[in-house]
Amino acid sequence: MAVGPTNGQISLTNQNNYTLYIPYTEEFINRRAELRRNHDELMSRINSEQSVIIPTTEDLNLINQKTQSLIKLKPSKSLVENSRNHSFLGELDNRLVFSVDCSHLKDSELSKIRQTYDFIDLRAVGSNLNAIDASLAVYTRGLQYWHRTHIFCARCATPTRITEGGHSRTCTSPKCEHITYPRIAPAAIVLIEHFPTDGSAPKCLLGKGNRSWGNVRSTLAGFTEVGESLEETVKREMEEEAGIKVYNIRYMGSQPWPFPSSLMVGFFAESNETELVLEEEEISEADWYTVEDLERQVASGELVLSRQDSIARYLIESWIEKIKAL
Ligand SMILES: [Zn+2]
């Protein structure tokens, strides 16, 4: 199994000899989509001793901070009856795994859980969780967010009810019965490389978004629009954000990013142009970096790379490995 960097290590040059991988993509759970067809029978199994429940509140996951692990609870009458948005995630280790929203649990029940564990934003702990827990956490967070934001029918405003094991919601108006499915917003995230014609060291383009903190530099990204392919998104966004035309677009991998509902689709692309015209509303700074620039500036603290659990980091480290191997 591929193993990522442990927390806090700068893995820029991959000296720890781990295999580069994209976090949140180790999907060990068998989704057992065929069970969703019999919704009522499936949801009754949430009470089984063979089932486990992953609790959430709002956008928070329940975490054991001491062990840095995601909490799975045994079903109890109180937990099942007082939680909402029951959703079947799949089968793992011969157990059915369900996700629930505990926001409306009685205070006494919630405080009992909180005595031992904490409801935490996944962005604060994601890099520390093991691969299975990390994947389960993004899965449950994304699905529960969708439930919370789709309680009314978009067509007629009547309340919806959960169907297909929590993977659809159906309008309760008999005149409508509109079915809606979880929405995912694809975004292209791109590492642009430039190979100078004078034979000097290749460079990559990294920028700082207006909402980023400190010295963080990341790859550029943008959401796919209606009627657009991902390749078109790459070309349009790079021209909008950095003012450069790109070509030789290569798919590098994807990552679920439920903050709140994205799918990040990673690419490498090349540009002959180096003069940048930044989109000020989105990007405050951007520049071209050689591998040597990155290593020196990260070591000195002058520059911080994107979060360790992001596909942006994966793209940057993959590019460094690629250039070093040339
Ligand atoms: Zn409706």
Kindly list the characteristics that best describe this protein.
326 residues, Nucleoside Triphosphate Pyrophosphohydrolase, 2 domains, 6-stranded mixed sheet, 8 helices, disordered N terminus, binds zinc ion
Write up what this structure looks like.
This protein has 326 residues and is of the alpha+beta class. It has two domains: 33-180, Nucleoside Triphosphate Pyrophosphohydrolase, CATH 3.90.79.20; 185-324, Nucleoside Triphosphate Pyrophosphohydrolase (Alpha-Beta Complex). The chain is built from eight helices and 17 strands. β7 and β8 form a beta hairpin.
Q: Which structural class should the secondary elements be placed in?
A: alpha+beta
Bound small molecules, by name, code or SMILES, are:
zinc ion
Q: List the quaternary state of the chains.
A: single chain
Give the H and E element order.
HEEEHEEHEHHEEEEEEEHEEEHEH
Proportion of residues in β-strands? 25-35%
CATH class identity of the largest domain: Alpha Beta
The gross shape turns out to be elongated
What is the total number of structural domains? 2
List unreliable stretches of 5+ residues. 1-17
CATH topology of the largest domain: Nucleoside Triphosphate Pyrophosphohydrolase
Distance between the termini: 27 Å
What's the tally of helices? 8
What topology does this entry show?
Elements lengths: L38 H6 L6 E7 L2 E5 L4 E2 L6 H6 L1 E9 L2 E7 L5 H10 L1 E4 H4 L5 H18 L11 E4 L4 E4 L7 E2 L4 E10 L8 E7 L6 E2 L2 E4 L6 H13 L4 E11 L4 E9 L12 E7 L1 H10 L3 E2 L5 H14 L2
Parallel strand pairs: 1-5, 10-15, 12-17
Antiparallel strand pairs: 1-2, 2-3, 2-6, 4-5, 7-8, 8-9, 10-11, 10-13, 11-16, 14-15
